[in-house]
């Protein structure tokens, strides 16, 4: 489907959503500058996709309900941001949205472009692991950024994304106990619901682009036995299906806002308190798997650069930078 058709569909959906009562085909056609036949065709398409649209003679159309589907139209008609996710590239199925975003970056696509997929066949996790993104259940998305700061600041973008995800899940689902495992796994009830993979193309003093890839276990009902102690989905924890589009839009809103604050100081000083309030490791014993030598200490929180502050038993303070090491709780996954 070409971009023009997608955006007309998104705009018609937006009109239907923003109208409390009925909106006539003529009104939509005047507002959007498209023919009434085009409007009618889009309405037919929407109905075929599961939107329940009431059509009343002399009154017009009224959106009664919409399905829990991911689509460009859904995302673009509900997106309220200025730049983050304003342009969405949606795939029903793709290998990896991070790879798609890389390709788009090389094609010159703008800062804030977002690739979303309903399913990935070759999703990538951190440290060369794979990430499973089943159709109709997961969220796989990659945000393309073109920052004008130095490459050493980029890892902090991952923390901003982790806070954004944690904030949105908390805001939409107040009953869930949301935490972050440093640096960037988002957990619900101590099990992982979200992983973030940030990849950068840069020279020593210049960033070409950064891709922040986010995978969320949204509506899975079952995990393989070997993962059941570590991974869960929002649906399992909440006991009901969640709206993936609302989550994606919320995350883009938060990330855009936080990115604006971050860009002023180029550190996470404004986010330390909020991050620490989510930090599951805070005040707990952690084992630092440093290639130069493992050690144990108590995690105290993060510093202005996003490094984890760890106090050793002899009172020595160590700061652990992202990417350098892996952190394990003493008992189990966290
Ligand atoms: C992790 O290992 O915790 C990070 C997982 C990141 C998965 C996401 S899904 C969207 C994007 N595309 C990928 O191939 N990976 C990231």
How does this structure look, described?
This protein has 334 residues and is α+β, with helices and mostly antiparallel strands. It is built from 9 helices and 14 strands. The strands form 3 sheets. It has a 7-stranded mixed beta sheet with strand order 3-4-5-9-8-7-6, sandwiched between helices. A 5-stranded antiparallel beta sheet has the order 13-12-11-10-14. A two-stranded antiparallel ribbon has the order 1-2. The protein has 3 domains: 3-65, Arc Repressor Mutant, subunit A; 72-277, Bira Bifunctional Protein, Domain 2 (BirA Bifunctional Protein, domain 2), CATH 3.30.930; 281-329, SH3 type barrels (Roll), CATH 2.30.30. The longest helix is centred in the C-terminal third of the chain and has 22 residues, at 244-265. Bound molecules: biotin (BTN). Biotin (BTN) is lined by residues 96-98, 120, 123-126, 129, 131, 133, 140-142, 185, 195-197, 213-215.
- CATH architecture group name of the largest domain: 2-Layer Sandwich
Overall number of strands:
14
Q: What is the rounded Rg?
A: 22 Å
CATH superfamily of the largest domain: Bira Bifunctional Protein, Domain 2
CATH topology of the largest domain: BirA Bifunctional Protein, domain 2
Shape: elongated
Compute the number of structural domains: 3
Assign the structural class, choosing from mainly alpha, mainly beta, alpha/beta, alpha+beta, or little secondary structure: alpha+beta
> Which ligands, by name, code or SMILES, are bound?
biotin
Please identify the oligomeric state.
single chain
Overall pLDDT level:
92
Low-confidence stretches: 1-5
In N-to-C order, the SSE pattern is HHHEEHEHEEHEEEEHHHEEEEE
| Terminal residue distance | 44 Å
Fraction in helix = 25-40%
